[in-house]
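Think of the structure tokens as a kind of shorthand, similar to the way a musician reads notation: each symbol stands for something richer, in this case the local conformation of the backbone. In the example below we present two proteins back to back. Begin with the first one, reading the sequence and then the tokens, and try to describe in your own words what changes along the chain.
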Amino acid sequence: MNLANALITHKRISTTVAKAKALRGYVEPLITKSKNDTTHSRRMVFRHLQNKEAVAELFREVAPKVGERPGGYTRIIKTGFRAGDSAEMCIIELVDFNEVYTTDSKDSAKKKTRRSRRGGGSKSTSESTPKQAAAAETAEEAVATEEVAEDVKEEAPVEETAEAATEEVATEEAPAEESSEESEESDDDKKEASN
């Protein structure tokens, strides 16, 4: 009971292998009962632990983390022999509370693919050929340069465009008068020629 309270409270304890194996058989059914958070299951667990703080810790912190695990909540890691009596020592810990082993376990499960002995594998559409990938990259770059060019046109200063517009109007008016006179003369010549 004391080892179970210490394991639930500290999540990892150091003890002998014999005590750890006995503790595993004692604490794992309690963790399984803690998945069902009812008054009855709390009373049944309290009957074995006799510690309110440990029961609260078990139902609040441990049970939500082990909710999907079907069993095997503890891990025994042998650490060698004790100096005094040469007893075999180990560390017993709750599996889901060890950050070294549990980091990115869900991400790696998603990335796993089946490998075959055959040489060729199925390729996705994005990895079809290097030429197609290069063509897609150049198309994306072209679209990006067009978007940048449009942004530059939109961001042109209003004062500069206004000055440029007045200069263009001034330069267009003088030749426009000469060209209008020439066009009237050419229209007259065309009429005479058609008569």
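Once you have a description of the first chain, move to the second and do the same.
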Amino acid sequence: MPRLPPVQRLLEVAEAATEEFGRLGYRGTKTADVAAKAGMSTGSLFTYVESKEALFHLVFLHGFELTSDQLPDLPVATPGPGETLKVIEAGLSQVQMPRIREALAKEDPGDVALELREVVEERYDLIEKYWRLLAVIERCAVEIPELEAAWFGLARSGTFEELGTYLDRRMAHGLLRRMPDAEVAARVVTESLSWFAWHRREGRDSTLYDDNAVRRTVVEFICAALIPESRC
């Protein structure tokens, strides 16, 4: 078997680490298990990352695509205090949802059914793209207070608030079906998207449904629930 170039091996290490941290959390993840999943010895793993902390850091550099095409200095160094959190915050800040921002800037959407569909599809696609990284963040946040504050206190709550504001405005003008609480409705939408775009992939349900059929059905279901019959 031909020997893989170092950059490819580093990517395999990052992907194996992402899976393990996302499944077991920070404390539960063992470097030996990551090495085995990447198909190398533990000793070989430490030629790519200096420590478990460096391995965790690499997960976010890779997941948020903050590394260049060039191979970084190996082994990847142990990050300084707060450095990994800065990478996570930078990565989350670059994850943009332009469609909902455009919708929030408009008073009259013209075609509210199309607007809502695009907002929902945008959110589904982002969750689907980053679900492995989101799993790492959620599993490890309970063990790392700074990460818990950044994720649950700011990033995650911010997405609920943004969607809740959008729904509330459209409901107030009679463009979407009014719900008792717009923020709860935003949570229902996001959690529904999260289960199908993310959580179902972590268990035995991952292969039960065709991915494209899932996406179309979930988006259609949410839009049908929120758009008044007169606008369908």
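Compare your description with these statements about the second chain. The first helix runs from residue 6 to 28.
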